[in-house]
Amino acid sequence: MARRKHCALPFNVRFADCCKLCKKYIYAEVPQFRDRKQAKGRMPLETLDATLSDFEQVFTGFQSSKAPLKFLLFLADKDPSTNRSWCPDCNVAEPVILEKLKASNDDVLLLRAYAGDRPTWRNPSHPWRIDPRFNLKGVPTFIRWGNGAIAGRLEDYEAHISNKIEFLLASN
User: Fold this and answer.
1) Is 90 a catalytic site residue?
2) pLDDT-derived band at 111, boundaries 50, 70, 90
3) Where's the Thioredoxin domain (predicted)?
């Protein structure tokens, strides 16, 4: 009997009795499951973008969403001519986070909130620095949102670390 690469459970074990890694492996590697998932037309990652000016409106829609997994990613603005952020940590963390979220088997809603240019973000009275809901210290900040509050977060110095992102994805 075939076994999964990362655990000793055979393939015929029900998904409910298996770990998230097994589900991820099966949906990605076993053709009959991969094709069934694609046939459903499932979009596992939905992304919303917000700026300082429209954040509250977008955030209200984000909170009312029925998505099982909700995340906020606070980033520095991108330069339109280069499509790169002025923040080097944001340029490193964002692709890693997006890759991990796209690989998730669950439906994920991501709100990317752009904090502004460098002088705007550096202002100590920046709205997201003083907002008690977020209390941002740096960008990028990756937050798991659940039950109307922060359920977990990765600060600027750790937001690019793959295993920490995976842990935040898997935590309840």
Assistant:
1) yes
2) very high
3) 66-170
